[in-house]
Every structure is written in structure tokens, then in C-alpha cells.
Amino acid sequence: MPTTVPAYGKEAAGRLASMADVTASDGALRRFLHGLPGVDAVGLQARAATLGTRSIKTTAKAYAIDLAISMIDLTTLEGADTPGKVRALCAKGIHPDPTDRGTPKVAAICVYPDMVATAKEALTGSGIHVASVATAFPAGRAALPVKLADTRDAVAAGADEIDMVIDRGAFLSGRYMTVFEEIKQVKEACRREDGSYAHLKVIFETGELQTYDNVRRVSWLAMLAGADFIKTSTGKVAVNATPPVTLLMLEAVRDFHATTGVQVGVKPAGGIRTTKDAMKYLVMVNETLGDQWLTADWFRFGASSLLNDLLMQRQKLGTGRYSGPDYVTVD
Amino acid sequence: MSFEYAPAPESRAVVDIAPSYGLFIDGEFTEAAGGKVFKTVSPANEEVLSEVAQAGSEDVERAVRAARKAFEKWSALPGAERAKYLFRIARLIQERSRELAVLESLDNGKPIRESRDSDLPLVAAHFFYYAGWADKLGHAGYGADPKPLGVAGQVIPWNFPLLMLAWKIAPALACGNTVVLKPAETTPLSALFFADICRQAGLPKGVVNILTGDGSTGAELVAHPDVNKVAFTGSTEVGKAIARTVAGTDKKLTLELGGKAANIVFDDAPIDQAVEGIVNGIFFNQGHVCCAGSRLLVQESVQDELLAALKRRMSTLRVGDPLDKNTDIGAINSAEQLARITELADAGEAEGAERWAPSCELPDAGYWFAPTLFTGVTQAHRIAQEEIFGPVLSVLTFRTPEEAVAKANNTPYGLSAGVWTEKGSRILWMANKLRAGIVWSNTFNKFDPASPFGGYKESGFGREGGRHGLEAYLDV
């Protein structure tokens, strides 16, 4: 029995506007963020572990595998990326399993800004989005004008989604308003000439934020600033997405929706490599947010190697036998 | 389309239940002298699992005599030797844990998730823990060379059949006592499997004896003149009767009885984790837990927020087949217990409390009760005073810490309590004020063999677990 969060609809705009008070000043923002309910680490981890013991079999597994594939932001973020490599990845995103054309497409291809045009061209007509990490990814250590230029570049090249990193230094030193303003400005930089916006995913790098209380605060901070998605990590540090951190972000999204009526998506990234891991995340979404979030519009996996494991498990369900790494493509 | 979990049942094939079982006396399975038997059923579908012997006074006599005879040698063994047997039992429990978990879920109705992840690991841990004490009794603080008491007569309940057995038998054997144990009438099977484990471990004959039967068997056992120590876990009513029986004799007695624990949530609590703690506190093991957090005391200022979160969370609980690995809430243990829960819940409604339960389909056969919440409860309501022993939570409110303490302590019971707040000083202040044997802070229903457990007031006396648990089985 999945829960569904009630939709607030009409009232949403008003409620969000009434939240403007809390971002009126540095002090107000600090008081609000520090007034959020605390997080008990032991309890949070225990809940995430319990959700991880759900046993997903047969029809539920088949459903979850296809769902997970459709939620993947298939990613290549290497200094050595070439147009050829990006094109190969795009081809794989369109037809993840060449032996089974019924396999769902991935949600997006995620690349550095200079590869956006290449990816956009390779994905023409596929419906797959191009996501790009901008704002001096992954460290975020550049002047704001540089970050904004980075973002505008990616959007101009055709990026449908921008994955920005926050200034962790500012956040950890308590300069919440700096982070808030930066997210707002990047969101504005996501504006296209026709007035529409590229989707903004805000990356926290939760491994660097250290405490769960920080994760809840930064989640609210980003959502108040207009994030369309909140994302755990860059995949470039030692600790990336973990089940407890993702669960906490899902809870923040749930509470934000209940308060403002605004729906925000969640994207765990980094370190999710196996079908079993992916199932655990889907169970967390299902039992925390419900059906409404169980689509690629509201939940994504940031991953590069997860897809092949999903494909192998999918083949196993179809044939009853395990194939092996040579039965899926390496791109 | 929604994400529906397909059934994921644990295989029954891992456990081989015989059509009938005798009593375990002096290392052998034997029939009851009176030849009487009774059936044990699976509460999830009312299927008869097996037939077990009903022990009468002659059988009690035989078992106590066997235990008395075995006591001479067993108590004379060096502690390290007794430890070897206990370690062996602990390892056998681990090796056979899947089988035992399935058996426990079949006979008791509890979800396999709990018998597999909570009960069995704790059962093994208790034997390991007390095995470690067996050769260190001189360092436990009860004198240089404390002596065992003799024959222990132990009567355990149906809510955690194997775990309660471990709580009773492990410290008794570690201290050098021998044991006659009577498991509950509705859940005798895991104790009989344990008897087999004792044989497998090569435990000397007569050290552990298992008598199945009903209340009359238990009454015979605790009244037997050659029993030196009585240990009972169960209802307050039966506990009082036992206390009367034992009064005036030189038997040592420990009682672990009912509870009506307060789970106190302050306005600065970690709300999401508090909700988990509330759910775990009252719906764990279908609420068949003496230390269940059956009274939720919530600070008025966060009442609405907390109740909304709690209802949302309760809606995700999965009730059904105990052997399904995705089941959160299993079956009520017996028809009698279901009737009692139903009667008390109805009384709650009749007395004006507001009843709420998530919509969930309950199976047709077997004994089932949906997780239920009562709001607008006052101290004057029966559901705030009496132990329900089922998945029914009563919600009361308070405004100040003093009021929370006063309400929490305003009960004949005092087994456990929970405090939820981010303020450390308040946790310590509350822990000092609450009259309960165990106070959990920012968590609930956490057990560990090293941690003593027991009650105040009508929740009984004596402690089980930890170093304190040794005292009940030593002549100190």
C-alpha cells in the first residue's frame, strides 16, 4: 500500500509565497533552517536499513527493473571524454539492450557542458534529455560570474537539465544566504531565449556536509531557492549517495510538498551499481513518497555502471539464466 | 501503474514439524503419564501444526526429579566446562536459525522479518553472552564464589517463545542451575526444537527439561516443593497468583509482567525518527510486547504534525502472511487474544476516544487485527489504563515536562518508557523521574543481552539480562 501525498494544487502558489518571509534575511533563513526537526542518525539509518530488506521478486522485480532503467541519467564525466564516447553512450541510452528492443530508454545522458551539443545531436528525436553538470563542477570553486557563464553555455548548447553544485564552503561556514542567492541566480541562468527554463538539479555533495542535520537544511534551502531536483552528490568524492541520506532528502521533499504544494524531484548519484541497490532506492521512494514520485520526472539515478547490471538481471528474468558481462555492451 | 510487491514467502520446507511431540524429560522425549495431548495451530490460518503432550503432576514430578539429579554434576562442573555447552548451543542456534525462524513464525504468527532479524539473532546472542559469564561468576559482584540455587522452574509466554526461553535458560545454566521450563500453550514448538538442540550439543541429561501444557502445568511446576527458583514472564494476573503460591516458601522468585509504557514525544523531537519509534514501539510483534509503547504522550504543540505523519506511516504497514518477507504485521496469536483486543478497542470507542485505522485487507482465515490508533484518549479511559497486548495505540497529550512525567507514571505498571527530544539534559532529567525499568531515548524496543530488563510496580521485580540477570540464579 503505497502512500500518496495529497496534492494541494491551487493553494500551492500562495503557500510558497508565504514562505518568502523565511528567506527575507540571513537571520530569518538561519532561524528557519535551524528550526527544522532534528535528525536522529541511529533512527534514520535503521529505517533505511529496514526498507532495504524488502524482498522484490518476480513481477515486482520486472516492473522495478524497467522503472529503474527509465530513471537513469547515464553519465560520463571524465576529463578524457571524446565526442565518440559521448555518441556511443547516447546510442546505448536509446537502445540499452540491442537484443531486446522492448527495453526502456534511459531518462537522460549526463555530460560536461562542452559535450552538450554532441549529445543533443546524437539524441535527436529520441526524447532522451541531455543533462549537463555546470557551475564549475565538481568542486564549485569559481567566481559566481564564471559559474553563471558555465550554466548559460550549457543551456545555449541545448541542455535540458542543469546539474549545479553548491558552494559547500559557504554552506558549512553558515553563509546560507550566499548559497540561496547562488542557486536563484543559476536558476535564472537556466532561462532560455523563449522564456522556458532548463530543469535545475542542485547537487549538495552530502559526503562533504557530514551531518544529517546539514542535509535536511540544505535540502530545504535548495527547494526554497527554486531547485527542480535535489541531488546527493557529484560521484567524484569518497562518500556519495547512501540510503540514509537519500531517505532524508525524500522526507524533506515530502514535507516541502506538504507545506508548499510544490513537487521536487530527487536524484541519488554515485556508487549505485547493482540492481539490488537500485531496488532499495525504489522501495524508499515508494514507501516515503508513493506513486506520484515513481517516474523519471521525479526520481533519477545518477549512474554509469548501474545500467549493465539492470540489463543482466532483466535478461535473467526473461530467460531464466544468467548471461554475463559479454552479453551487454560496454559503452 | 504502481509498485506492488509480489509475494515473497519464505519456504516452509526448511522446517520439519512432526505430527506429535512428547515431553522432554531427562534427555528423552516421552509421552505424558496421563496420555493427554493438545493441538497447536498456526494463528495465520488456523492450520493444525502438531499435537503436543499435556504434562500432568506426575510428569512435573519426573522432570523436577531429573533436574535435581542432574544438578549435582552440572553445578560441580568448572564454569569453563558449562560455557563450552552454552557456546555450542549458541552456535547450533545460529546454524539452525532459518529453520527456527520459520518455525517461530508458523507457530506464533509473527512476521518472518522479525523472527529472522530480531528474535533469532538475540536468542543466539543471549547464549553467547551468558556462556561468557559461566567461568567469571566470581567477578560479577556477588561474592568470590557464588553458588547456584538448584532447580529452576520457568514459565514463559507466547509472544517471544524462543527469546524468552533464552532469557530464562542461558543465565540459569551459566550459573550452574538445572531447568524445568514450560513454554506457553499456544507456542510450544520452538522449545521442543530447542530440546533437540540440547541433545545435539551433548548437554548432560536432565539439565534442561521441557514440559508442554497449559496453565495447570505451570501452576504444578511453580508449586513443586523441590523447585528452588521460580521465574515467570507473562500476565500480571498470573504473576500475582504465582507470588501467592511462592509466598512463605524459601523459593527465589522473579516476575516480569505486563506494561503500559509511555512513549513521550517533545516538540523538539526528531519527528521522522519519532514516528518510526512509535510504530516500532507499538506495532512490533503485533503489539504483543510487554514493554510496548502503547501510550503515546505527545506535546500539544506538535500533535497535529506528528499524528499526520504517524497516520501516513501506518498506511504503509503491510499486514498479512507472516511467512512473507515483506510482511510488517502478522497474525494475532490466538482467538482469545483477538477477542480481548477487540473488546478493549470497542471500549475505547464506547468511552469516546476517536478510532482510526488505515484501510487494509485482512485475510479471511486466522486471527487478525488492523493497526489501530486512538486519539482524544484521557487517563480515565480503559485503553489508557489496561494493557491491551495488541496493535492498538492510545494517544494522549501534555503541555509541560512535569505533566508528561506525571501522566507517564500514572499507571499501575512500570516496565519501560520512551523519550523523544533533541535536548540531552531533558533526556537525563526524564530518565531520573520516570518510574520504569528501562527508559529508551530517541529509540524504542532495543534489546541487548548485556542490558538488564525488568519492571517496577505491577510490571514485576527482578532483572533479566546483563550482569544483573545473574543475581536471580545465584545464592546471594
UniProtKB/TrEMBL annotation, chain A:
- Give the metabolic or biological pathway: Carbohydrate degradation; 2-deoxy-D-ribose 1-phosphate degradation; D-glyceraldehyde 3-phosphate and acetaldehyde from 2-deoxy-alpha-D-ribose 1-phosphate: step 2/2
Report the record's Gene Ontology biological process terms.
carbohydrate catabolic process; deoxyribonucleotide catabolic process
Query: What keyword terms does UniProt attach to this protein?
Result: Lyase, Schiff base
- Recorded GO MF terms: deoxyribose-phosphate aldolase activity
Question: What's the EC number here?
Answer: 4.1.2.4
Q: Which reaction does it catalyse?
A: 2-deoxy-D-ribose 5-phosphate = D-glyceraldehyde 3-phosphate + acetaldehyde
Source taxon at top rank = Bacteria
Pfam families per UniProt: DeoC (PF01791)
Cross-referenced InterPro entries, in alphabetical order?
A: Aldolase_TIM, DeoC, DeoC/FbaB/LacD_aldolase
UniProt GO cellular component terms: cytoplasm
Family designation? Belongs to the DeoC/FbaB aldolase family. DeoC type 2 subfamily.
Spell out the protein name for this chain: Deoxyribose-phosphate aldolase
Q: What is the native source organism of this protein? A: Streptomyces chrestomyceticus JCM 4735
Automatic annotation (TrEMBL), chain B:
Q: Which Pfam families has this protein been placed in?
A: Aldedh
- Positions of the catalytic residues: E256
Sorted alphabetically, which PROSITE patterns does this protein's record hold?
ALDEHYDE_DEHYDR_GLU
Q: Provide the GO MF annotations for this entry.
A: oxidoreductase activity, acting on the aldehyde or oxo group of donors, NAD or NADP as acceptor
InterPro entries (UniProt xref): Ald_DH/histidinol_DH, Ald_DH_C, Ald_DH_CS_GLU, Ald_DH_N, Aldehyde_DH_dom
**Boundaries of each Aldehyde dehydrogenase domain copy?**
30-475
The entry's keywords? Oxidoreductase
Parts forming coiled coils: none
Q: In which domain of life is the source organism classified?
A: Bacteria
Name the protein family: Belongs to the aldehyde dehydrogenase family.
What name appears for this protein in its UniProt entry?
Aldehyde dehydrogenase
Q: Which organism is it from?
A: Streptomyces chrestomyceticus JCM 4735
